[in-house]
Amino acid sequence: MGISVANFAASRVDASAEGLLNARAFTRCHLQRWHLQDAVDDVVAVVGELTANAVRHTAAATGGAWLALATSPRTVMCVVRDPSSRVPVRRAAVYPATEGRGLNVIAGLSCVWGWSVEDDGKAVWARVPI
User: What is the pLDDT of residue 92?
Assistant: First the structure.
């Protein structure tokens, strides 16, 4: 038994500002290729937060993370995998703070999000409606 998806793409995300820009560009390119223009802004925002969190909190010490995108009939699944087992913690938004709101952004733009931890790291994921 397997899982069938309409579209799939994956890319390494370098632990740098350029790596984060490339992850967003990669996402935008694939969503446009898959004719999902209406979802581009939300999915790019979610991927931006997921990859920034991975690089900021864990992957900077290890060189990067992995990004995967897959579509289903109603959502785009965004997954970022990094080598840390440290789980994400959603914090209350404190204004006018400019940090600490990433998981709130992800929660607001996705229909569901979460994470899984394995021996060699974790994956943080979000399903964004299309």
Answer: 72
